[in-house]
Every structure is written in C-alpha cells, then in structure tokens.
Amino acid sequence: MFTRPVPADRLPDLLRAMPKAELHMHIEGSLEPEQMFEFARRNSVALAYSSAQAVREAYVFDNLQSFLDIYHAGTMVLKTEQDFYDMACAYFARAQADNVTHAELFFDTQTHTGHGLSAATVINGLHRACDDAPAKYGLTASLILCFLRHLSEAEAFACLEEAMPLRDKLVGIGLASSEVGHPPEKFAKVFARAKQLGFRLVAHAGEEGPPEYIWNALDILKVERIDHGVQAIKDSRLMQRLIHDKVPLTVCPLSNLKLRVYSNLSQHNIGRMLDAGVVATINSDDPAYFGGYINENFTQTFAALGLNSDRAYQLALNSINASFIDATERARHVDRLNEVFETFR
Ligand code: ADE
Ligand code: ZN
User: Fold this and answer.
1) Residue 251: beta bridge partners?
2) Domains of the chain, start order
3) Distance (Å, rounded) from C-alpha 48 to C-alpha 339?
4) Least distant ligand from the CA of 250
5) pLDDT tens, 42-101?
6) CA-28 nearest atom, ligand 1
7) Neighbours of ion ligand 2 (CB under 5 A)
C-alpha cells in the first residue's frame, strides 16, 4: 500500500487514470437511448418514446422490478449479431475512456431467445466484440451468461444446453433478474452442472434480498463472487465469512442509489465494508440506466463517502484480483496499477 496519500484535489484524476477491472455490468444495460433509436430504426422496431430525451426521462425507478420492466422493453430493439457486436463495442469505448483494462460482461440469453433470437446470434456478436477489444479498445473482455431467476430451473437448463456448442466463448455463469422470491437454491442443480462443465460461477445476491440468499449462493450454488452483496452488513457472521474466505463483492453504488437500496450515496456501506476487510469492488451494473459508467461510480462514491487514495488503490487491486484472468495477466495488470500510482505520488 502507498504511504503518502494522493492530495484530495488530484483524486478525481487518479480515479479515472488508475487501471481497473469491471466485473459487474450487464451489456444490455449499456444500451444508451440514442443507440436504442438507431437499432429500432435499422430493425424496424417501433419505440414507445418520441426521443432519446423522453427515454431518459422515463428512467425513474422505485426498486429492482420497476427497472427490470423498462430494461426488458429496451432489449426489444436488439435483433442481429451485429447489434450485439455494436452494443458491446460502444461499451468498450466508454470503458476505455475510464481506463478499464479488463471487463467481464454479463448478458442474459433468455431475454433474447424469449424474443425469438438464437443464443448463437447473441453469443457470437458479443464474443466477436470481445475478440476485437484488445486491438480496438486496449482492454481484454470475457462473457458471463446469466440465468434469469424469475424463470424456472428447467428453463435455465435449456438455456445452458443451447449455449453448449459455444461453450468456449464463455468464461462463467451468473444469476440475475428479480431477486426476492427467487432464492439461489432454486438453481442448485443447474449451477452444479455448470460447475461440472468448468464454468466460473457468480450470482446476484443481497441486492434487495436477505443475507440468507448470500449464504445460499455461497454454500449451495458454490459461487466465487457475489454480485451486489450489500445486505451482508446485516449479518455479522456472514461478514466474517466473506472476510475470512476473501469472497469478492461486486458492488454497484449508483445502481443501489437509482433502485433505492439507499436514499443517498452518503448512506452507502461500501466504505464500512472496506474498513471491515471485505474484498469489495466498484462497478456500473447498467450504466445507461443508472446515471453513469464506472468512473462516475468511483467519483460520486468517493465524494459522498470521503474515501481516499488508499481506498482507490484497494478497490482497483481488488477488481484485478477478483477477476477471472490468469496469474500472468493478473501480474501485468498489478504492475500497470503500481506504475500509475507512482506517477501520482
Ligand atoms: N439485470 C440487470 N441488472 C440487474 C440488477 N441490478 N439486478 C438483477 N438483475 C439485473
Ligand atoms: Zn447486476
């Protein structure tokens, strides 16, 4: 860790400049209203809004479900492999501007197969963008297929089956969508199968749902990271478990604010989580819907909570260590992180 803190007035520059991994973002949630209109035009899909501004004005949410309803409507404009490629490239350009050097993208095939697309259309488009990302955007990227937890386990099995011919294009399996009422154990068998198949495993838990969902994601689904996990703070035994086992949490502060998990960013618990020794990271979740990409999440959170440059280093390092890259790549990312911090001392 760095002994001499970076002065507060240089913190915003440091937050942007430091290389970081983004581990919790839904690529469909990066679809900006302008791009939504572009895809609607080229695919002849009618939109319920008159302008991109009108779309943005509709982005007022009461909770996770009210967001998911609008998010789902937005995905209706995605029709072709090229749409998925273009959407991912647009995100990579934004991520590069925030010095993201590695990204692990969530996507939900079931949303799109539910509209009549094939899993191959989705996965091939996204994967081609990931393949092009190092040369075009200076970052590496991989894909995590999320099952939709409001659907059945049998449907998750069918989704896994359809993705299997493209297995080499995916690094992991996750669990997303409406949390409360759809506990992790509903997906015990399909996660066991995914583990057998060699997928890395993650799950959303403790976004709105209780600490018990986090326990069960760890103990029943055997996930390696928890997406969100902010409700863990209500259970001191669970906090000890997360700290002891170094379970990473992929926290998304602006998402939590927009979905009213917290009424104000100054109430967010990520500072307390870090103080307690939890391996927390900062991510954007659905940046087009929640008011900002990863750097916006960093700068607003740091300003609201008064976090310092040691915390910035910790968060960037946590993101690299919690990612699914190999040891050689990890060492390269840490070296770059240290180099950037040196220039700010
Ligand atoms: N899908 C997209 N964003 C999500 C979130 N924040 N929680 C659960 N599922 C999601
Ligand atoms: Zn999410």
Assistant:
1) 282
2) 8-343 (3.20.20.140)
3) 48
4) 2
5) 999 999 999 999 999 999 999 999 999 999 999 999 999 999 999 999 999 999 999 999
6) 2
7) 285
